[in-house]
Amino acid sequence: xxxxxxxxxxxxxxxxxxxxxxxxxxxxxxxxxxxxxxxxxxxxxxxxxxxxxxxxxxxxxxxxxxxxxxxxxxxxxxxxxxxxxxxxxxxxxxxxxxxxxxxxxxxxxxxxxxxxxxxxxxxxxxxxxxxxxxxxxxxxxxxxxxxxxxxxxxxxxxxxxxxxxxxxxxxxxxxxxxxxxxxxxxxxxxxxxxxxxxxxxxxxxxxxxxxxxxxxxxxxxxxxxxxxxxxxxxxxxxxxxxxxxxxxxxxxxxxxxxxxxxxxxxxxxxxxxxxxxxxxxxxxxxxxxxxxxxxxxxxxxxxxxxxxxxxxxxxxxxxxxxxxxxxxxxxxxxxxxxxxxxxxxxxxxxxxxxxxxxxxxxxxxxxxxxxxxxxxxxxxxxxxxxxxxxxxxxxxxxxxxxxxxxxxxxxxxxxxxxxxxxxxxxxxxxxxxxxxxxxxxxxxxxxxxxxxxxxxxxxxxxxxxxxxxxxxxxxxxxxxxxxxxxxxxxxxxxxxxxxxxxxxxxxxxxxxxxxxxxxxxx
Length: 522
Ligand SMILES: [Zn+2]
Hints:
Number of helices: 16
Number of strands: 26
Helix content: 25-40%
CATH class of the largest domain: Alpha Beta
Bound molecules: zinc ion
Strand order of the largest sheet: 3-10-11-19-16-15-14-12-13
Mean pLDDT: 94
Oligomer: single chain
CATH topology of the largest domain: BirA Bifunctional Protein, domain 2
């Protein structure tokens, strides 16, 4: 039996420079990965796609807030009390384990969300011992997942590495609101690192201790929860997994956004619009539409302050994994910070029904209202999304090529092209270098390879999913003085077919093809 796909993919990811195990030359703790050159480029491209859809196109704001937060912030947010996993310690070797994970491995059922008492009973009933030394396991308790630190030399000012990027946006909200003209809605996003001190990191990039998030907070007046642009996209279809009807699980269904909204699966147009954006994002990353779904969380699973939550789940070789959550968090976060900081988080905005002015009289000042804004928050994990992109693009040997390769969309691929002189002599390398310089000056991410057979260089390019290979050959040199200039061959990754084009046109053509997602000649 062949090993699961994720094992093979992790080997490839490391050998081909997508990922590097962090601090590998020491006894590295698990749950940390570095991104190698090809991986860092792909990750950056995923972030750029998100930025384009969630910030640039709608004209929202992007900030970059600090990753170290003073303790009171995380007391207010609830993380100090509630951001914890159920853990038990071996009485013999003192190693600690996730009680729910031990039970899942033994019983093949989900134990997520169970209380320590139930987990204790489960461990006893299933006679589970320490996986490391077979010793007896101690009582299950909660372990907080934040990385503690302290600010200043004295160490008496406790702080944490942030467990999510969202808090920075809530803390900055009041100033941003005023700077932006005291108007709602106001949408602020950020991309950045967050930390979660997992008890037992597993599943590669899926459960890491340091990871990157892309989060947006859409602040709005709850009396005005219409979304600009929703009319245009309300007919689009997404795949949802509705909550169970009592004890009866319901099947996935493809449903129009407007219908899902009408049937109460989504609390408002804003959340529906965020689903549309995530759907567009995943399509552009090359994740097939039948591999992901939006799971509507049942009401009894929602936190008390939430009025709706929809998770984006992707089918991978690990099973279904959650890569994003979109939550209608009401005014919970800002109200918590108001309570704990003693700062007023109310804002003054124009009320919905401004009275019309009567003829001949000056227009009355529009009525205003004071409120703590509500928020819809789409929150996405970059590393998990990266993994889904990798799995979606993977092609085993025999699928079009004799080697394993990656079919990334050009917008995501680590490089748009490789530049290859057929030989290193006879002046071909000089022409290739000139082209390389021109392409890089045009802002295209390209790489250079001049040694080995041309077939091997094409194969190496396929192995990291580079969509185009440009070869400078003897014809390029011999016809350098032809009218219209010399030509080169461009090889398309997916079908390996080649096309002869003018060297002067390469930068424009590459940009055009990449934008159109053209990856084969035919
Ligand atoms: Zn043990």
